[in-house]
Amino acid sequence: MARIEPQKPDQTFNRSREFQREVLAYLKEHGPQPYDVLYVHFDPNRTAEIQAVLHELIQWKFINRGTDSYMTVSITASGIARLGLKDI
To answer: Most CB within 10 Å of its CB: which of 17, 22, 51, 82?
Structure first.
């Protein structure tokens, strides 16, 4: 029987960076989206992984979350610039 081992911290960190890039690229291509749309699109199984990624992106001001009833999320100019960097 195969053994399932927990992910190593560097694997988790790399996945988080990939996820951040995916979210930024999606918002750049599709424009502002309701928070729930992003949640369902990137985390259909509701594992809450996307929640941490969105929180980090908001904290670093790469995305904005609106105060409207949909909590519309949009990419900022610094988020667009971040997409151009190779280390994300």
So the answer is: 82
